[in-house]
Amino acid sequence: MDIQIKPIITEKANAYSEKLNCYTFAVSPDANKFQIKDIVEKLYNVRVDRVNIANYAGKRKQRYTKGGLIRGRKPAFKKAYVIVAKGQKIDYYSNI
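^ that's the sequence the OP posted. Answer follows.
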């Protein structure tokens, strides 16, 4: 099974990483905590203490066009809050 993982870089996520040593990732909806922990440890060479997960439902979106109303949905996703060991950091830009 191929698990997708993508860092979420927002003001709130940056505040969490600075104050709480907690990093935020958008992951595949079928990923579990153990898989997320293994992937983060392998990609960023850090020791993960804890992983918390939040499921987000897809939001409904609509727009008005010349041809009429177009309705759709944004995809659902899962957000993982990864807390790394004290004294360690994740550098998102090292893999670029």
